Amino acid sequence: DDPELLKKGLKRKLKQKQRSKKKWADRKSNVEKQKVKKQEKRKENITKRKEQKLKKKQQKARKKGRIA
Asked: Which are the contacts of 58, defined by CB distance < 8 A and separation ≥ 6?
């Protein structure tokens, strides 16, 4: 009913909305960073595993005398 109080309330709501928007944007960017990080790690693990398999295969072949 008091115009000053109404203005204050409106201002407070707007500030809260802005804070919420900022927090959401931060969270979104953080999630994106984590996603990229996990993808990189997965890629590294896959290549590492591929190399290990190849190495093991070559060792078995050497043991059986297929590779000199």
From this structure: 67
Structure tokens, 51: 């190399």
What would the pLDDT profile of 8-36 be if each residue is shown by its tens digit?
999 999 999 999 999 999 999 999 999 99
Per DSSP, the three-state class of 1 is coil
- Please tell me whether residue 66 adopts helix, strand or coil conformation: coil
Q: Where are the domains of the chain?
A: 25-68
What pTM value is reported for the model? Answer: 0.65
Residue 29 structure tokens? 């960017």
* Cα–Cα dist 47/18, whole Å: 44
d(CA 20, CA 61): 61
